[in-house]
Here is the input.
Amino acid sequence: MKLIVGLGNPGKKYEDTRHNVGFIAVAKIAALLSASPSKVKFEGELAEASASGTKVCLLCPHTYMNASGQSVRKAVDFYKLEHDDILVLCDDLNLAPGRLRIRPRGSAGGQNGLKDIIRHLGDESFPRLRIGIGRPPDGWTVTDYVLGKFAKNEIETIESATTQAAYAAISWVNDGIGAAMNKFNASADTDEKKVNTKNKPVADKPSAAKPRIDAETGEQSPGPKNES
Here is the structure.
């Protein structure tokens, strides 16, 4: 059995935002595998499917990004999974928009959802598939950028990337991580730490911050957001 986890923030407010590419890709996996209707379980949305005879569970935590680990840990404990049977899909600021990067393990690299999963699982030894969203334009904060919706000139790239991410995840189930890495990883000439700054999203800078929803309680309170 395999567990594929898409990271993001729940609710219509966050639909089609950069931070939710994991949710978008998992929805495409569900469609490709004709998954069962989703249900609420493990503090998230869970669907079941099969790929080449292997049971696949698709989980989108509804705990908000910064608390993703508590949902993942509940699923891992329930199914008694090894960590290499988990694949986490998430956004990555340090990859150019549309680039994919699959790794068998590693640090969070500044991604707060991954950071919380590492904290709850106790180590970094689980596969992850990062989907590049690029760096914020000048004048934007990281929080405003990742919680912002895609600009018109980004949509085609991200649609293609999340579709490829869905196929990459299925390849991971069917063929193993080595084959998936060889087929879907970004080309070697793109350094994760040196994102091409051309073709930045063209969009207005967001207005002043609104009351945040606390990542652990789900309640609104004033001050900076905690969904990043």
